[in-house]
Amino acid sequence: MHGTHAARVLAFQRGDDVVVIVPRLILELTAAGTRWPVGAAWAETWVDMPAGRSWHEVFTGRTVAGGALSLEELLAGFPLALLECTDQCTDPGVPA
């Protein structure tokens, strides 16, 4: 996580195929009267996802590519993200 609001976000990866991104300490991000920080509230903040993979965002139905993801785009319509890998995400030589 890096950028302007990196300290206000937690990201957790479970295994190779699930990532959860949730906001924290959001009071200043909602000062403009919005209930939840979405979209522009996360300007200049990114999360680094494993590159070369596609991820399905469960709450919005969007698919995003791995690499540096803008939280402004990822959290544009919903204040948290649950991402599931859609590609071959585990090492085929390691049992699941």
Features:
96 residues; mainly beta
Which sequence of SSEs, written as H and E, runs from N to C? EEEEEHE
* Uncertain ranges: none
Radius of gyration (Å): 14 Å
Q: In the CATH classification, which architecture applies?
A: Sandwich
| The top level CATH class name | Mainly Beta
Please provide the count of β strands: 6
Task: Give the strand content.
Answer: 35-45%
The assigned structural class equals: mainly beta
Span from first to last CA?
27 Å
The gross shape turns out to be elongated
Number of helices: 1
CATH topology: Immunoglobulin-like
Q: What's the average pLDDT?
A: 84
| Biggest β-sheet strands, sense, barrel | 6 strands, antiparallel
User: How many domains comprise the coordinates?
Assistant: 1
The portion of residues assigned to helices is: under 10%
